[in-house]
Amino acid sequence: MNTAVILxxxxxxxxxxxxxxxxxxxxxCLIDRTLSILRxxxxxxxxxxxGYHDELYKKYSSDDVSLVHNPEYEFTASMGSLALCKDMLxxxxxxxxxxxxxxxxxxxQLSAISEGNCLSVTEESGSGDECYVxxxxxxxxxxxxxxxxxxxxxxxMMGVSRISLNTFRKMVGAWEVSSNPYLNYxxxxxxxxxxxxxxxxxxxxxxxxxVDCDKDFRNLENGLYRSxxxxxxxxxxENLRSHLSVIFPGHDVSKAEIIQIGGMSNxxxxxxxxxxxxVLRVPGNGSEGMVERANEEFNALEACKLGVNPEIRYFxxxxxxxxxxxxxxxxxxxxATIQRHDNMNKIAKIYQTIHxxxxxxxxxxxxxxxxxxxxCLIKQVGAKMYKGWETVRPMIMSLESYLNELGVELCxxxxxxxYENFIKASDGTIxxxxxxYSGMNDPMADFAALFLEADFTKENxxxxxxxxxxGEIPDNTFKKILCYxxxxxxxxxxxxxxxEAKGDDFGTYGIERYNRAVSNLKNINEVYGTD
Length: 531
Known about the structure:
Elements: E1 3-8, H1 30-40, E2 45-50, E3 65-69, H2 78-83, E4 93-97, E5 100-101, H3 104-111, E6 118-122, E7 132-136, E8 139-144, E9 156-163, H4 165-176, H5 185-191, E10 200-203, E11 209-210, H6 214-232, H7 237-247, E12 257-262, E13 267-273, E14 276-282, H8 293-306, E15 312-315, E16 322-325, E17 331-332, H9 341-355, H10 367-380, H11 389-397, H12 399-406, E18 411-413, E19 422-424, E20 430-432, E21 439-441, H13 443-454, H14 458-469, H15 477-501, H16 509-528
Parallel strand pairs: 1-2, 1-4, 2-3, 6-10
Antiparallel strand pairs: 4-9, 5-11, 6-9, 7-8, 12-13, 13-14, 14-16, 15-16, 17-19, 18-21, 19-20
């Protein structure tokens, strides 16, 4: 299969420049990246269907790229664009939606399929424009954007698919007698095929996204792209094998397979060795002074004993190198999947297990003390906090007396509830990983972090807290949570300043957290009168 079709005709509703050609980093754009991936994977014939501001695509016309203009782009949808290729397609082809950002491995694995159709499916993204998928025995049985029609949320369709020539011809035949110009290709694909004609590849923990609006584009620019850069950043294989030789003395670690699997602040690698799979964690830039590794080691091992953390096989408290069991076929939760009721029920139980365990972690994680510590680190690296911090900081620190009035409880806490830190095994068990910032804290700080990181709806906040408290939510709970939300945002804004001073790039992550902290400070003063 040497042919690919890219659909890029759509008119944008909130951008003068089509998102496929809008630059987001290092003078690159979605169409540049997609064409590069296709060429690297051996595609010799690439058809790009254009419409809105088609003049911006003319520079891409070349020996291996043909441009097809859809004059009706304002009045047709994706099938109208795809049908224009009918006289140019003579074999099975890869179909790519031009507004989709994805890892190269998606194209590599779809290209390895020798015949027929094959769809790409991954975890629900929570983008708001999801194309939900249901499957049965390895085949897609339903595709819909209406969540009310989904019995079991099994994933979301990505805009990259392998389409057979036979299926395409059936789709074109149906399109030519259709009275609906706004028909999308995926629905016609469902109409013109049987389930056995719709196999799929399920991609777990893949970095991808659709760009349908300015919010999506900013997420691409400041989130997805930077996450992919960290994941694809070249690593020092010799150095990693030297770590493995210490972990596995007397073994031939040259036979170990090393696969980079990303990480926000650390570098994580899957290690396949002697019939077992592990995760090797190597601390990233700027963690010195932020994380006490001896505390992390003790606390993480206690979490293993509670059954909420995968088994740790090696931990070096001096270097921060850690080896833990790899949870095979695990799903990393997303901002959307973490808010499914079945997952929220399990997370409520995880927090009950941790908070009610009566174990004493090695340290207290006092956010106010951490802010003071980060103040010193910012000075040490020669950086400066965001504009206005001199006025904001006293207001932040004044929340300590307000929290004391509300009542602070100390218990074991995780303190870093990124949704990526919740992984779901194939048997449904959810683990909470990455205990770098763990310590004794108020349990509502854990929920504040969870609600912030995954942007929990108010209904879902109420739901998980009711499950956690097994009934009525105590008074002052949401007041405390709002305080801790402000504190987390300010602390992680400081964290970003320190990390970026040491060479990392997190885009607008830090300033956005800082601005949200400032906004919530105003809210808490207006609603609860904390002045």
